[in-house]
From TrEMBL:
It is a multi-pass membrane protein. Residues 7-385 form the Major facilitator superfamily (MFS) profile domain. It comes from the Bacteria. GO terms for molecular function: transmembrane transporter activity. This is Transporter, major facilitator family protein. It is found in: Cell membrane. Keywords: Cell membrane, Membrane, Transmembrane, Transmembrane helix, Transport.
């Protein structure tokens, strides 16, 4: 039991440092804009670039490493990740910084996919949803402690010191992975085509669109969270750090609630979540007339953002274990892959909206994606019911 707790902590730490690096840009948008003399909207596209590279590279890398030892694969991925953040640390120009973020993004998705696969491997069945929700919570913990810490470091000591902090924690994480995780873990061997058979399943085809549109809806506004809080809701830079911390706490509670959902209603609870999300997003311009009411709206939306994580991750793993055991690592990666497609879609949409309509329009823009997500989850629930009832997936 002690070994399991240590291994669980290490996997959460892997998720934390990956999340810290990915989401840091949101907290230092203004500082990078001033440093490189580029518009904030342009810096926001670093989020889009990272997410697109992450999403596109992850399936290729996970398929290629699927037949190799996953312990050593994780160490390699984390090593390249640390190197990429080192490049960000010394970036002399905005273009160089963008290239360094591409290097980091290339391996981030594969690293979290392997970590999630390890979580499913080391956890007893009764603890699986608990551990998966905690690994996902690692990203929220990065929002609670990492992004506000990075924002504070950037404000007081410069944004390069924020990347140095990431590098130090990455090296510590590498050492803990080396010392704690099982070294002989491999999934069932299969050809690349054998692993890709997973994508023929309608439960997978519809399921993987859910995290994409779920996060697209949120990232239309979340990419611009710092300017929303400081310019639209008129909070000071000092209060910004406090609010980012509070939002991160809300995200952790959302991840923990996600684990509980998996033990209960699971995906069947999500339509209600998306109806509430739609109402809040469409009403955001009006609700933001009161800055504290605006903070409440942001908290509820950020609380709801991770609720899908554990139910959809368990859905992917169960489909793979029952029908495609050769594709478990690939199945473990689908949530993170399509979440990042969603981040890219949402942040790009947010950039267009902010440039053409202004910051006040990001909420209604995100609401459009929420409607798509609602339709998808209703469809997937119907497909799952048909599968359970008839043993087939209807078209």
């Amino acid at each position: 039991m002690k070994q399991f707790k240590v291994q669980s902590f290490v996997l959460v730490l892997v998720a934390f440092i990956l999340g810290f690096s990915e989401f840091l840009i949101v907290g230092i948008l203004d500082d990078l804009s001033n440093q490189f003399n580029v518009p904030v909207a342009t810096v926001g596209y670093l989020v889009t670039i990272f997410a697109m590279v992450y999403a596109i590279s992850t399936p290729f890398i996970t398929v290629l490493i699927g037949k190799y030892n996953l312990f050593w694969s994780l160490l390699v991925m984390m090593g390249v990740f640390t190197f990429g953040n080192g490049l960000s640390l010394v970036a002399p120009s905005f273009i160089f910084l963008a290239i360094s973020r591409i290097v980091t993004a290339l391996v981030s998705g594969a690293a979290i996919s392997i970590a999630l696969t390890f979580a499913g491997h080391i956890a007893p069945m009764s603890k699986r949803a608990w551990l998966l929700s905690w690994v996902f919570a690692g990203f929220s913990i990065a929002s609670v402690f990492g992004v506000p810490l990075g924002t504070w470091i950037s404000t007081n000591f410069g944004w390069r010191m924020a990347f140095l902090t990431i590098i130090v924690i990455s090296l510590i994480t590498l050492g803990l992975v080396f010392l704690s995780l099982p070294r002989d873990f491999k999934q069932k061997g299969s050809s690349i085509l054998g692993q890709l058979a997973l994508f023929k399943d309608r439960r997978i085809q519809i399921g993987m669109l859910l995290p994409m549109f779920n996060l697209a809806a949120i990232y239309v506004f979340y990419t611009y969270l710092r300017p929303i809080v400081t310019h639209q809701l008129h909070f000071s830079t000092q209060l910004l750090t406090v609010l980012l911390f509070v939002f991160g706490i809300a995200s952790i509670f959302g991840n923990r609630a996600s684990g509980k959902l998996t033990e209960g209603w699971g995906l069947h609870a999500m339509p209600t979540v998306y109806i509430i999300q739609f109402i809040l997003l469409i009403m955001m311009p009006i609700l933001f007339n009161s800055r504290w009411l605006g903070v409440g709206v942001l908290m509820i939306l950020i609380l709801g953002m991770p609720l899908l994580n554990s139910p959809i991750q368990i859905h992917f793993l169960q489909v793979a274990e029952q029908n495609y055991p050769q594709s478990i690592v690939l199945a473990s990666s689908l949530n993170s892959i399509f979440s990042n497609f969603g981040i890219a879609l949402g942040s790009a949409t947010g950039g267009v909206i902010v440039s053409s309509l202004g910051m006040h329009a990001v909420g209604p823009g995100g609401a459009v994606y929420t409607i798509v997500t609602l339709g998808l989850v209703i469809w997937l629930n119907q497909i799952n019911r048909n599968w359970q009832r008839n043993g087939i997936v209807t078209e």
